[in-house]
Write a structure and sequence with these properties.
535 residues, alpha+beta, single chain, globular, disordered N terminus
Amino acid sequence: MASALALAGCGSSPNASGGGGGGGNSTLVVVTPDTSWTWALDNGFGGLEPSMNVVGATLVRNPYAATGKNGIVAQNVSKYEPYLAKSWTVSKNSTVITFHLADAVSEQGNPITSDDVIWSWERRFKSPTSISPSIQAPQITAVKQFHKIDDKTFTVTLAQPGYLSTFFGLIANVTAYIYDAKYLEAHATPSDPYAVKFSTTHANYGFGPYSVTNYQPGVSATLTANSNFVLGAPKIKTIIYKIVPDEGTRVNLLKSGDANVALDIAPSDLVNLQEGPGTAILSAPNPNSYMEMPLLTNRAPFNNPLVRQAMEYAIPYNQIIQNVFHGLAFRKSPGFLRSDAPGYDGSGFTDFTYDPAKAKALLAQAGVSAPVSYTLTVSAAEPDMQEAAVQIQTYAKAAGFNITIKQVPASAFGQGRTDHTFQAFLLLDYSITLTPSYELNVYTAKNSDASPAGNNLGAWVDPAFYAAKAKADALADPYTPAAGKLWNAAERIFIDQAPIAFIAQIQPTTAFRTDIKGITWRSDQWIDWSQASKG
């Protein structure tokens, strides 16, 4: 792994897979529900797609390749290419990475320096609203791992060789955007020392392909291409995001051509849009997006693992796949590690299927009287989750559960998922970094005081799980058959303890006009407009 990463980084051009190149002026209209946009994970959780195109430049990235289907391009999540770092080298013991920065310029016109990189991690680790620290552990746990050599060169030191693969995955995604420190420091205050509050409404503090030229929270955002973008000026010069709460209206705008791209489209409409005329849908051969049902372990009734297991047997998996997702989903297993990763071992999992008798038996074993009543929360911005909730409510009755469905605004849903106040909830979510260590950490991370971190969706802390994961993390190569067995041991604990039910893998919910090429499938599920073209 170390030699592969070193070869990928040494002497490579920062235009490795391009930023879209030249081209004439063009505008795209994107219609989306209100996902409560935010511009970085440092200022809370919310809709992040616009921010990826503005703030979201990283040191490295996963390269894109054509899929041969509807002009879609997809990330190769196993490889990395230069972005804001033009090259890098890895020490022989795979613990020290030396980066050399490209000649990138921020949206404010400031050239990137090593100080920007180190300050970006300081902000992440010192902002109380940031969820990045828990997600990046154990690969990145402190700013002191970063060491400046000169304005364009710095090193990062890892605690052990086994962290290298996931480290590169982490620095290629949303937890590792690089900020313009000079600009943000100029707007810092004693009460806002890292300009986090300032940046919630002033988004142009990164090195991405676009700048925000008009932003009306809850209404719209206009993104304009940066001519000095380090990977080349995007072909699409203007992206106009319009918030359209009604899903049917978004579909009609796409069909009429008044919108070029529609986000968060219901599966029933995606089935029709994939056949046109003039429309297509984004798809992936092995999507990393899951429909998930976190069962909060910090409160009744799911503070008992037997009740959680019973609920897993009360979920009508096949009915949800067919009735809600209309076949645009599938369920390989109850697990969630990437099944096509080298060395993957999916043996020994508890086979959770819809089985009311088993559910009732587990409730009896737990000493709990049926029906077990609780509230299932869904976001008002996600109609497919609302439909799935009704399916679960209906079928779970026969399994001994009485479910009340509560629908809340997207902003309240985002808050509730991180502060662990729901009893249970439904969402589509995904592991952005597709390495076993990260996938097992993203929903199980704990804070320094051993409390569950914000993205620990089930509020589940289990010493046996952490010990099993640590054994796998200690291996230098995470993709050998021996490593696969250790990852499997940790994943089995997670599945058996059931803090989250992974119901199905879900295809993307994006539809677009067929004259738009370069729509991206990314592990973060967002579209990189620097790859797109029109006509």
